[in-house]
Amino acid sequence: MSDRIVKAAGLVLLCVLPLYVDAFWLQVGLFAMAAAIGAVGLNVLSGTAGQLSLGHAFFLAVGAYGYVWLAGEPGPGLPPSVAMVLAVVLAGVAGGLFSPVAARVRGVYLGVATLALVFIGHHVMLSAEPVTGGFNGRSVPPMEIGGFTFAATDPELVVLGVPFGAEERLWYLGIALLALTWFTARGILRGRPGRALTALRDSETAAAVMGVSLARHRSSAFVLSSMYAGLAGVLLALAFRRIVPDYFGLALSIDYLAMIVIGGLGSVAGATAGAVFVTALPLLMARYADQLPLVAAPGAPGHAVGPTEASRYLYGVAIILILLFAPDGLHGLARRARQRLRRGSSRAPSPAAAEPSASSGPAARPKEHIS
């Protein structure tokens, strides 16, 4: 019951944050939510199914550019909500087209194969200017659901005296999409598909003996991961409001690997925690660069390290520490901390049991400690 109370309190806190924090913190939260959705997808593929992928950025790009093209001009000009769904489906189709490779190849060979997707995708994004806008990218059409626009438009929306602009409105869309990701991913991983993927990761021979179709489950995990990445790409595009090809490069795929390793492989909550850490750290360091030692503000002259480079150094240190001392990541650390607290509370004697009654006599008195 206590876990449910904590989760409910956390959800209430997320819902009231736009009433108290400024646009910068909401932007950080939106980027973290988008990253968490993509990290959950990669964790299904790499953490649960045990398949290494370095091409996650490609499927984020498919979702982002798919939404922009489907909802924008030039393009079909579909309703944004329909364009979002079709963009996720498009990312799943892209994953399905690559799934025969994922079904046959595994380990580092699959990682190298997916790495090719990043370079191919970057070339396509630069070349297909009618769809992607080329090097300069494209502006992102605002999301609209049922006549409500998730952008700062007239008439102005005011809630409890707080003007709700684009960030405030997108905040609740991000919460809804992240909750949908959590609900579906946890249901899949706790059900028969999740157990089959775990068996596939632990031992392919044992999984085959138990009747698990290796090729089908590998392909399914890749398609599912691609669809989560496509949804993350849509939310990321809405938060950025303009997308460019250079963002969806190899560095983004490496960031997603860092998220799931730091957060904890095979855990939805761990993927979310790792996404928040990896996403928020460079933004916070850029904002407070003038107050941090050895860190220079973006574009400032000198030999100090920029916030992006400094955050990547910290990622590296965090990954090394996690691999050495906590292989199950932040989620494992939190789980062990909760277990220690529960054991400590269960072992603590109640006041009535700790104080002997006056009528209990000498036999009921505790033994004195002899040093």
TrEMBL record:
Compartment list: Cell membrane
Region annotated Disordered, chain positions: 341-371
Any GO molecular function: branched-chain amino acid transmembrane transporter activity
Domain of life of the native organism: Bacteria
Membrane topology reported for the UniProt record: Multi-pass membrane protein
GO cellular component terms, A-Z: plasma membrane
UniProt KW keywords: Cell membrane, Membrane, Transmembrane, Transmembrane helix
Keyword Transmembrane: yes
Comp. bias intervals (Low complexity): 346-364
Residue ranges crossing the lipid bilayer per the database entry: 24-45, 52-70, 82-101, 108-126, 170-189, 221-244, 256-284, 313-334
InterPro entries to which the protein is assigned, alphabetical: ABC_transp_permease, LivM-like
Keyword Lipid metabolism attributed: no
Protein name: Branched-chain amino acid ABC transporter permease
Lineage: Bacteria, Bacillati, Actinomycetota, Actinomycetes, Kitasatosporales
